[in-house]
Specification:
heterodimer, A: 346 residues, alpha/beta, Rossmann fold, 2 domains, 19% strand, B: 432 residues, 6-stranded mixed beta sheet, 4-stranded mixed beta sheet, 11 helices
Chain lengths: 346, 432
Amino acid sequence: MKVVHYLNQFFGGVGGEEFADTPPNFLEGPVGPGKLLNQILPEGSQIVGTIVCGDNYAVENQQDIVSFVNAKVKEARADLFVAGPCFNAGRYGMSAGAVCEAVKSESDIPVVTAMSEENPGVDVYRGEVLIVDSGSSPANMRDVLVRIANLGAKLANDETVGPPSTEGYIPQGFLRTEFVEKTAAQRLAEMLMAKLKGESFEPEIPVTTFEPIPVPLMTTEIAKAKIALVTDGGLVPRSNPDNLPRAFSRVWGAYSIDERPKLLEEDFEVAHGGYDNAHVQQDPNRLVPVDVMREMERSGAIGSLHEEFLSTTGNSNPLENSRRIGREMAQRLKEAGVDAVILTST
Amino acid sequence: MRLTLAVHSISQTDFGPKTQLEGTRLQIDVEELRRCILQDRRLQSVDLEIARPGESCRAGYVFDIIEPRAKEPGSGVDFPGILGPVTPVGQGVTHVLRGAAVTVVDGGQPGGELGYESRRGGVSKILEMSGEAAKRSSYGDLQHLVMVPRAHPDIKRHAVLNALRVASCRAAVFLAQTALSQLPDSTLDFELEGPKSRNGNLPRVAYIGQIHGHQHGTESDEHILYGANTRGMMPTPLHPNEWMDGAVVTSYSWGGRGLETYFYQNHPIIGELYRLHQSGQANFVGAIATISSDQESEMKRNSMMAAQIAKWNLGADGVVLTKYAGGAPHTDMFETARQCEALGVKTVVLTSDTASDSRAESALLINTKEVNAIVSHSEGSDVRFQLPTVDRIIAGNSEVADIISGLSELTPDALCGIANNQGASRLQPIIY
């Protein structure tokens, strides 16, 4: 197994912070912690080359460092790419994550790095890159390198990688369903008793907290504003031209309201399998309130109603997909000069 | 309230000249059972078959699975509000044919995508008796009386579903009445003193369970709680014994997520809380039945009231919460749990994952940091069962027969007894 290793200027022996602008350099064989890693790697494996690059240079010239690393990995015909360990060095972690992700997608070989959980590189790259939990102290170097070597060998040999707690890497956030000995009821009773006794327990799905999204300040008077209607309730014109599915939608649609005083039942249908949409089938205005908005337009309460409404199916959507749909919708509304949006959810 | 289950083990079920229980052998006079089912004049025929563990047999689409049970005369009514007047259950003696099941297949449900569209009456759910799926299913080792009642063609869909429900309960009682005069193999007692009991200083635990989700509609003649359809229902204290003894049956909207009357009768969570009670680890003070709503205001009101009852009527220190399948009930459950936590009642919730990307961040749906004790039965959309070709198909109609005989692979949500919202599931998402 041929391994290419990536290090920053400090671990690569170039120097401290004053050398953080050093451009990348390729050296034959192992360097710095790579020498220890080389001894730990399984028989027949070796570090064939090491890329050393300054932290500032890597962060500020990400395209350059990514191309440099990709080229060297290909030239070396590497079977495994290792970066770090970076511990809690933020710029090092960010660049190690970036080069690992690039090598994985460009050369399709396994990649491993190591960081402390607090390293900003973890949040950005944990989903794509296996990151060994290094803790923050380089005193753990040997342990960390052992785990890197084990994981790297498993990946390179196409062996099954165990769960994070056994293998020592930071959870990537993927769920794999397994059959377990205890029923859900038994697990519930145990967790309840632990919680009541003040003992520690692990939720089976991590409790996620999302950053609150600040509500933007309205800069236009509402009486002059152009308002758009957006829904995740799956309202579509009859025949569903964009083929919105009843769940797991990857698509959204923009549908003309024209000069309609209201939405007519015969023109619309609902593509959504997650709520009782009989009321919406009877009167689509109860989901996308065109009738009321027209009244407000006439009375001057709002400036105008935007000429189309946007619709998708908000049912069991992966978050990343929802974020993309949200970004695309916001972009379209922004370009159309919409000042405010009424979101109706189901 | 004290309920005694008189358990009669069943090892073999056959059709024969007389309906009777001989030791562990259940014999069914098929014509007598047919007459019992067809006393409902909405039904014009009923197919009756037996499916045994390991047999090369597949049945679908399944409407419900019930354990054969019958109340000892004087102990109360079987399935009150469905088969008899509304009088309380959960007391006295109930005879149980353990190891047997009545599995009802919907003769009226269309196949394919239409089968999914017509959510009223379950989705494309399969009972598999052989292979890996049967091994993993809670129902794989039972002797099933599989029944396909067929309604007259002019009967409206809601009335067909009602007739299926009545037929399911009738068959369950019909079979178990064979045990009435017989000595059981064992008896199990379920007795709680209720919320007044102090029971030392043991932590007081309770169960809050959704028994229906209104987001796919509810029929006016749908039987769920003592025969009520639960429209406009507010959270109701329901004794755990009532829950297990025929007060509750599954609704028509059980989704693909495993909710069968069988696991109300053998409620895994109520069973676990009883175990904590009987072993002196906790004081099981009661249960609350609730629904998930299709209205925001109703959701808020019900969540608040369930939490209030748990805190001030049951005096609970901790509760287990479950949902009625799907995403909308998920929201109601988390809001109820949040309100419990705000009152100082500790919570544990049973969730499932409906997202399609197997990412932990998508699985939770809800961002409520107080509700931090989470068990998940996953639904297992990443698990695949290879299905064998089978010798015998029991299907609701020829269209469904074509579909299910050609199946070669299924996920747990399409199979009975693997994913389950009542706590029976052994699936768990492991974070990688």
